[in-house]
Structures are given as C-alpha cells and as structure tokens.
Amino acid sequence: CGLFISRTAAVAVFILPFDAGGFLYIAASDLIPTMHKTEGIGKIYSFIYLALAVVFMLAAKIVFKV
Q1: C-alpha distance from residue 61 to each of 8, 48, 57, 64 (Å)
Q2: How confident is the model at residue 60 (pLDDT cuts 50, 70, 90)?
Q3: CA 27 from centroid of its chain's CA atoms
Q4: Do residues 4 and 15 lie in contact, with contact meaning Cβ atoms separated by under 8 Å?
Q5: In angstroms, how far apart are the furthest CA atoms of the chain?
Q6: How many other CB atoms are found less than 10 A from the CB of residue 44?
Q7: Helix 9-37 / helix 41-64 crossing angle, nearest 10 deg
Q8: How many CB atoms lie within 10 A of CB 60?
Q9: Helix (H) or strand (E) holding 2
Q10: What is the pLDDT of residues 14-51, one digit of tens each?
C-alpha cells in the first residue's frame, strides 16, 4: 500500500515503516488471542511459528539491506 502511494524512494522510507507496523499490529491482535485459547502443545507451536516469522523478517532485512 505505502509503496504504491509513494513514487520516490525518499517518501517510501517514511511510509513503509508505518505500513509494516499496521500489518504487524493486525497480525498480532489476531494471533495472540488465538494463542491464549489454544491448549497444550498447540500453544507452543503457535509461539514458535510466530517467533520464526519475526526471525525470517529480520533475516530478510539483513540479507536484502532494506
């Protein structure tokens, strides 16, 4: 969304973090209540997948130097 609004890289530097934060908020607000409802081993798997997603995003940022 933010990338299409901005046509120059200078504007994208300011818009994309807000856009990414919005997506993270939506994902976290949906996943965390679901994790609280999950019982047993499913709760551990949910947390591991959430942590792996964050690590994957960090690795992509480091590799692609975005």
Answers
A1: 20, 20, 6, 5
A2: confident
A3: 7
A4: no
A5: 48
A6: 11
A7: 170
A8: 10
A9: helix 2-5
A10: 777 777 778 878 877 777 777 667 677 777 887 888 88
Looking at this protein, which amino acid is placed at residue 21?
A: G
Q: Which residue has the tokens 């890289």?
A: 9
Please answer whether residues 16 and 3 qualify as being in contact, where contact means their C-beta atoms are separated by less than 8 angstroms: yes
Cβ atoms of 41 and 28 within 8 Å: the answer is: no
Structure-block tokens of residue 2: 């933010």
Lookup result for tokens 């969304």: 1
3-state helix/strand/coil string of 12-59: HHHHHHHHHHHHHHHHHHHHHHHHHHCCCHHHHHHHHHHHHHHHHHHH
